[in-house]
């Protein structure tokens, strides 16, 4: 299949009946306002909000795409600027403007790349990016720009970033991506490449979540599904029913064991393209 634009690739995906679940999981479905509201109520977004130290101020939404995160931030009380270089009315700045009008929300839209942010120093209280850093043409420069526009004490939250263990794993990940083969825009970095770029830009990584440690990464799977998967090794030793009782999260000991198993399972996963989330802060001085 010939290489398409991102808009054409998403439009093609939406036309495949067998891909309906994926389309909805990616919030590519219409009406856009309904998709954005579904995201704003999702377990993923609620977990993201819980990590933020503030609930108001200026927020920059990097690589905003269709605007679902911009919508959720604005509904949560943030003064939002959506950065999106694609002008598409389906998956770009055109879609964001339409969504803001329909939702009666104020969202400033800027068509630019993250490596050259057209904003003054210390301008934003929050920089948010959902599945954005792995698209950077120059990851260190991208992070330096983020650090520059953040005020002292401001936060960066970069969610659902593709991670590979070795550079030679990248082709295997790209081969399995449902859209890369038709539009060619996906990528992934080593875990240390993300953390080095963030920290070398002058930000402090406060928290880092592996693929199964937070709903931010494992959505659209549920906590119950992740608990069952991570308890698999235990179930093979003691039996499924016993493992289910031991990891029952309604009990303090069961919740502690479940969390330990999930963390271990997350840390040992080396699947190419697994998802990580990073929360970083700009020092006060």
Briefly summarize what is shown.
The chain is 45% helix and 19% strand. It is α/β, with parallel strands linked by helices.
Order of helices and strands: HHHHEHEHEEHEHHEHEHHHHHE
Instruction: Compute the CA-based radius of gyration.
Output: 19 Å
Task: Summarize the biggest pleated sheet.
Answer: 8 strands, mixed
State the total count of DSSP E strands.
8
Describe the global form.
Answer: globular
Number of helices: 15
Mean pLDDT: 95
Helical fraction: 40-55%
Strand percentage, roughly?
A: 15-25%
**Unreliable stretches:** none
The structure class reads: alpha/beta
How far apart, in Å, are the first and last alpha carbons?
Answer: 52 Å
Please characterize this protein's 3D structure:
With 285 residues, this protein is α/β, with parallel strands linked by helices. Strands 1, 2, 3, 4, 5, 6, 7 and 8 form an eight-stranded mixed β-sheet that branches. The mean pLDDT is 95. The protein is globular. Helix 3 packs across helix 5 (68-75), helix 7 (139-149) runs parallel beside helix 10 (191-200) and helix 13 crosses helix 14. It is built from 15 helices and eight strands. The termini are far apart. The longest helix is centred in the last third of the chain and has 17 residues, at 252-268. The protein has helices at residues 6-14, 20-25, 32-40, 43-51, 68-75, 93-103, 139-149, 170-176, 180-183, 191-200, 215-218, 223-230, 232-238, 240-246, 252-268, and strands at residues 57-62, 78-83, 107-110, 124-130, 150-164, 189-190, 204-209, 274-281. Strand 2 (78-83), helix 6 and strand 3 (107-110) form a beta-alpha-beta unit.
